[in-house]
Design a protein that fits this description.
By secondary structure, the protein is an alpha/beta fold. It is 18% helix and 23% strand.
Amino acid sequence: MSAAARARAAKQVARHADGILHLRSGRRIGIYAATAEELDTSCLIALALSRGCLVYLPRIDPRSHVRSMCFARITAVPRSLRSNRFGIVEPAGPQLASVRLLDVVFLPLVGFDRHGIRLGMGGGYYDRAFGFRRLRASWHAPLLVGIGYASQEVPRIAPAAHDVPLDLVITERGVIRCVRGS
């Protein structure tokens, strides 16, 4: 995709996200700082901050032996954050006490299907962080929303035992409500 098409897609995703999630003051939003290969999240971060949302970015704990991730609050669109060992920028601020306190989490996608199964970069950080959602079928918080390009949709991804399904996927074309079951 051209840079202009990518920028348009990022703006459309932010509009669709606001349309369905009604971003408003006090909502706790988890979102990633995009790499060059991912859909740019800066429009969505700026919108959430302008609406008074509390915005948190993921941060990998370098001391952890189980490759864990926490979320740290930001107060402005990230421009110059430190890069971790994977080249992903992350905040240095105080971390959130529990990911269960987030209202919505936007996750990056390499691929996805309509059953909410997502392919990430392979580290399993999100699946470990939100693994508690596999324990109860009725767990509703936080809402897990994949964001990416419509071209990343595939017909079916075989789920692994550790996969935590998404509730929604938002692309430049609109919102996809994920269906559970096979």
